[in-house]
Amino acid sequence: MTLFLVMMGYIVYFHLTESKDFIRSPYNQRQDSLADRIKRGRILDKNGRVLAETVTGKGGSEYRKYPYGEMFAHVVGYTAKGKTGIESIENSALLTSNAFFLEKFRNELKDEKNSGDNVVTTLDVNIQEAAYEALGSSKGAVVAIEPNTGKIVAMVSKPDFDPNTISEDWEELNEDDSGVLVNRATQGQYAPGSTFKVITALEFMRQDSGYAGYSYKCSGKIKAGSNTIHCYGGKVHGKVDLKDSLAYSCNTSFCSIGSELKISSFRKTTKELLFDSKLPSELPYNKSKFALGEHAGTAERMMTAMGQGQTQVSPYHMALITSAIANSGTLMKPYLVDSVTNHTGTIVSKNRPDKYKELMSAKEAAKLKKYMESVTDYGTASVLSNAGYTTAGKTGTAEYSSDKGKDHSWFIGIANVDNPDLVVSVVIEASDGTAKAVNVAKEVFDAYY
User: Residue 36: how many CB atoms within 10 A of its CB?
Assistant: First the structure.
């Protein structure tokens, strides 16, 4: 009896939690067999523009067409040489037909394929195009999310490829050492640079109830063990409080803060912010890492507090943290698919906004948002100060090489601060100083409004 109940319990568990993963698996040949009698459905943007569709060529041969080519390569994915992106996670829906039963009966009699269901995404061609064009020839990634719903409206990764010619280009793409097939938005791992100072500020607020009275005199440099850490560009910021420290991205101030923080508490906070944890994502991703150990020395503490050290994070993860800040501390479950419809547009299923987790209190989120406003008002992201909408954000410069000029440019930002509409996370690899992540974010915000 016990064995029977355990088996029945597992069957119920499997159908509720595991079955989708098995159905979506690229190794599951059952789904591909459905393609013999169902024409794969279309993938659409939020406004109905076609991102992927199956076209019938001469002789009845079918092939997958991607009208926007490289622009949606990583997020929409491809179906040749395996399946990736939305093509993979919605494989079952695209190969299921919910056409009217008489229509399906007629097609069966005529030995014709039924039309698969369409997947309507949360992606917006206009926002995606703005992000894609703003990145230009730079390597990097952009993620844009509506913080109050969790809808992902844009996800760009570069370098890219043309999914229309994936079969022909397969060998070349696999030999490419730039990681062209990697979705840098979710799988990229970068030192967060000064964007991490937002997290350090949160931890400081939690550990020191007198943070509002914090004061530090920046001389442009600080001793870190046997090393000396400088403020970016050798700037001397003078007397700063916590808000000014974030606005001017004062390295020495945050190094001073970091040297005094209790590491066990810091690790707890980063865990709550999903470091070293599972992320809410249906796309493949890499976990972010907070590597500060209990016995870390002063230099490592300082470097970690300012976003260097061994900490690694993806642009997607930073977008999630920024979304929680924008949404009063609550992270909504991010999603890419708004609905599934049959080929005539009748809704089969629809996703609704859903709370994922509270990453911080509403009071903490409001204070961080206020500090981040100073960054765009008069700090390192003042290029956004004259926009036709209110903003808050944080810039970052992440060193990843001993060679000078080898820095990643970061920006996380919020648009329409009092009632946030959109958050953006941008990273540009090996920026030469002219390609700045904040400028990319501005292009995305401008396109949104």
Answer: 7
Which residues, in sequence order, are bridge partners of residue 350?
A: 339
Cβ count near 16 (within 10 Å): 9
Q: What is the pLDDT of residue 305?
A: 95
Q: Which residue is listed with tokens 């508490």?
A: 265
Claim: this prediction has a pTM higher than 0.70: yes
Give yes or no for a contact between 393 and 192, defined as CB atoms under 8 angstroms apart: no
Query: Cα 289–214–220 angle (5° rounding)?
Result: 75
- The C-alpha atoms of residue 417 and residue 410 are separated, in whole angstroms, by 20
Q: Using alpha carbons only, how large is the chain's radius of gyration in Å?
A: 24
What does the angle CA 325 – CA 357 – CA 420 come to, to the nearest 5 degrees? 30
Q: What are the φ/ψ torsions at residue 121 (nearest 5 degrees)?
A: -90, 175
Among 157, 160, 221, 234, which residue's Cα sits nearest to residue 190?
Answer: 157
Q: What are phi and psi of 122, to 5 degrees?
A: -90, -5
Strands 422-431 and 238-240: unpaired
For the stretch 247-274, pLDDT in tens is 999 999 999 999 999 999 999 999 999 9
- Rounded to whole angstroms, what are the CA distances from 363 to 76, 325, 366, 393? 37, 10, 5, 18
Enumerate residues 6+ apart whose C-beta is below 8 A from 439: 134, 383
